[in-house]
Fold:
Amino acid sequence: MEIEIQRRLEAVWRLESARIVGALTRLVRDVGLAEELAQDALVSALQDWPRTGVPENPGGWLMLTARHRAIDRLRRDDKLREKVETLGRDVEDRQRTAAYDGTAEFDAVLDEDQIEDDILRLIFISCHPVLATPARVALTLRLLGGLTTEEIARAFVVPEPTIAQRIVRAKRTLGEKDIPFEVPPPAERAERLASVLEVVYLIFNEGYSATGGDDLLRTDLCQEALRLGRMLAGLAPDEPEVHGLVALMEIQASRFQARVDGDGRPVTLAEQDRGRWDQSLIQRGFTTLLRARELQRPVGPYVLQAAIAACHAQAARPEDTDWAQIALLYETLLQLAPTPVARLNHAVAVAETGRTAAALSIVDDLTARLHNYHLLYAVRGDLLARLGRMTEARVAFEQAAELTRNRPEREVLLRRAYACVAATA
Amino acid sequence: MTTNGGGPPATPELYARMGAFVTELTQAGVLLASGGLDPKGTHFSAADGQVTMTDGPYAEAKESIVSFALIEARTEEEARELAQRFWSVVGDGEGDMRRVYGPGD
Structure:
């Protein structure tokens, strides 16, 4: 019975913790303290529920209990109250501060209409640029995903104390620098949103790059990133890039089963069994991408990457791929975000339109900047092989094999290197 | 999840409560699709190569809500919690919760 209650509580916590921590942060203006108070409520539930049974509205129970704790704390702690009052920027905030100073009805601070905004504020503060990227990732999973430190550590294959420390430091930094709990003002919005999207996409890629074996927890990260992305799309529906990122993740996730073979070796897009692509995710990706376009605002990097992914998803067979369109989308993407990796992908698209030599010269120009990136050499090897320059191709594949840290991938590359030898023999 | 009917007729209040719940779940990134279903519908059964069609309705009271919601939850427990909340909004009636398998299952 107690185990069952614990499991229910765990589920309720995961579903509700972002709302609770968000609402409390608005009250006490300190993410760290808010989470601490929310955790206290969780402990109360663990103690009370086995005795009283699970309340009819368990999420509401947690929220109320946590708010009680926050208000208690504010009543007892003069310094905290002063800080909150100083930080309460707008009139509305000051009114709210006044509401729990005295006998005001408890319901006065249970303003449900604020909660969605609280979650959005919580996302923005968790992904604040003042924090290093790994700290942003850990804090986001913790506060918005309701994941435990242990779960985050296992998912990222990092020792638990490392994650715990990252989270503690991140909360401290936010407190020390008095980072406001707010949806960023228009002038900062684009930059701050980019920081949020980066974190979500990093979480997704961490899961997506996991292959085989003990990686189930890591692949859960993809689901988590999708959930975060959809949450963000629901809260900030006017941002095309949010929909772009969700669409990109949905279409990429549709290939999840096809992207590795039975032995955990990565399978290239061209060789994937397209029958194993998840059509419902592809459809959802298309719909999401449409939503981004319907906003009729200038496209950003995520929308473009999603459009590229959609081109691939539309091709029933690899030879049906519209490479000219993809090359064009990459050219637009490069104008916005001229990253070396995008340039490399552009080279691949150019090669697929038949311009192999042009593609090779793009790749050669990138060598200095991507000299540690195994895929550069893998692409180079492929292009050289197409041009019949087998000896050079072999060297490139071997370089790629040496640089990759992924063992199954190394096997694939070494096999290709060997095939070059065989071709010249 | 489905509601198979059997509950009270839908009132404007119920629609309003359900609307708020749907918005909340959408904003939480949980709700992927939802919709009302025509309680009429057609039932199919096949045996020994013989397909039989029977026209509805199937719901006990045709005014009551017949609907579906496609949600994405991280665990079975989370799905159950969400379903419980859903039913606390709907009130009386019955329905089913089933897992949707993907290509990887």
Summary: The two ends of chain A are 70 Å apart (CA to CA).
